[in-house]
Design brief:
Blueprint lengths: L5 H48 L3 H25 L26 E6 L13 E15 L2 E14 L5 E3 L14 H13 L4 H10 L6 H14 L1 H11 L4 E13 L4 E12 L11 E7 L5 H6 L6 E4 L3 H7 L6 E3 L1
Keywords: Coiled coil
Pfam families: DDE_Tnp_IS66 (PF03050), LZ_Tnp_IS66 (PF13007), zf-IS66 (PF13005)
Organism: Bacteroides xylanisolvens
Length: 330
Amino acid sequence: MNDISSDDIFLLKQRLAEQEALIHALQEKLSNREREIDHLQAQLDKLRRMNFGSRSEKVSRRIAQMEADLNRLQKESDTLTGRVYDPAVQRPLRQTRTRKPFPESLPRDEKRLLPAAPCCPNCGGSLSYLGEDTAEQLELMRSAFRVIRTVREKHACTQCDAIVQAPAPSRPIERGIAGPGLLARVLTSKYAEHTPLYRQSEIYGRQGVELSRSLLSGWVDACCRQLSPLEEALHGYVLTDGKLHADDTPVPVLLPGNKKTKTGRLWTYVRDDRNAGSTLAPAVWFAYSPDRKGIHPQTHLAGFSGVLQADAYGGFTELYRDGRIPDAAC
């Protein structure tokens, strides 16, 4: 074996130093690009909110230019890092563009899934360990984050080389990182505890997990889609022929863009005949409208033909004209 001369060693060290300097420069360039992308994204979001309230041709041109600059910077950043886009999925179900790993400080529970049978399903031969697929899911347990790591072992047949693996478990949101407990917590905090999503994002950030407001909003929208069959069943149950209590209440609604509120209406329909000896479960169905026009309750009760108990609001009066719905005075 030939001896390496001191000149070769010096040359190698020099090239190594050059490569390290190049890597440092590229990392600095990448960091600057990411900061510029975040800055442009924040400005673009602000302009979109302004454009929603009062449309302006000048604002529209600025939005188009910033979107073009943002796309260019994102492509350059992807080229430097080697990132590729995820397959196209519905926007509410799509996760963030670059998914950060979960903090190592979070405790982890590992669930190891084995093939259903200890032998090959094709030929009946014995299986040997081949490898495994690992996926992590963020879960909330007792107000503490925990990463649920699911490991699906791969086994190979020793006779025919067939590969056997347990199927991946389903998730509440396809390809989502949130477990059912975390989604339930977000919905409960928003609708039962009246905690806005931006405050929830701050709360989770103090626990060491960064969940942006837009990500939480996407989860809420996806959960509402998943719960739509339950809402339809509740609607059908409450409006079944019988006795129905109806009323409306004003609710302040934030107008996007100008930080002002307008008055919307929340229509409440209650089915509860327990005082009359009924053993059927009570239930309530809510419907929202941006105003108090009579067309809203008339549309809600278009298929109802039972007894309606409501106040003297004129929007309910039209329902009594044809005699299909008897009036029970308050």
